[in-house]
């Protein structure tokens, strides 16, 4: 009887040890960041894909379905004109008098063109590129100087004005721009280092 209990306790001990190893080795290790903005902004993913959000307080009694239909019509009209650069509606809804619409893009040029098409002035970007930091040849980028000790996996090089979210924790933003976790407000030429 004692041997049986000891065997059960050992199995439980092994299970707990395995669960702790999985937890500590981080079946996720790094915090995952989703894009759920409470302000108009752009989202930069590690692979360079982009999203943008329009978030605005509204006074009318509009319904989420009406907003979704309107946003879908804008996307369809744009995609008919631009077969190479496609936009996708990710989310559209109204909650507590706040309307939110989120779009994803196949390229920066697509995001820029769609903003002109829809007269979206929530961001004003001239360029945006994302590189894996280990692959980027910073010696060819004269205006980029990363201070010693800054760690990160990706660099987003941005020229323009926008509220930016990244899908990893920000570790550095040039020009002494303040940042918080995975958000920063950029204006002009800036680069963001993130994990």
What does this structure look like?
The protein is an alpha+beta fold. The protein has one domain. The protein has 3 helices and 9 strands. It has helices at residues 2-25, 64-81, 108-118, and strands spanning 41-44, 50-57, 87-95, 98-105, 124-132, 154-166, 170-173, 179-180, 183-194. Strands 1, 2, 3, 4, 5, 6, 7, 8 and 9 form a 9-stranded mixed β-sheet that branches. It is globular and about 55 Å long.
**Helical content, roughly?**
25-40%
What string gives the helices and strands in order? HEEHEEHEEEEE
Shape: globular
Gyration radius over CA: 22 Å
Alpha plus pi helix count: 3
Main sheet specs = 9 strands, mixed
Strand content: 35-45%
Oligomeric category: single chain
Global mean pLDDT = 85
Which stretches are low in confidence, meaning pLDDT under 50 for 5 or more residues running?
Answer: 6-29
Question: Between the first and last Cα atoms, what is the distance in angstroms?
Answer: 53 Å
Structural class computed from helices and strand pairing:
alpha+beta
Tally of discrete structural domains: 1
Structure summary, number of beta strands: 9
Protein name: Lipoprotein
Organism: Lachnoanaerobaculum saburreum
Summarize the structure.
This protein has 195 residues and is α+β, with helices and mostly antiparallel strands. It contains three helices and nine strands, in the order αββαββαβββββ. About 12% of the residues have low confidence.
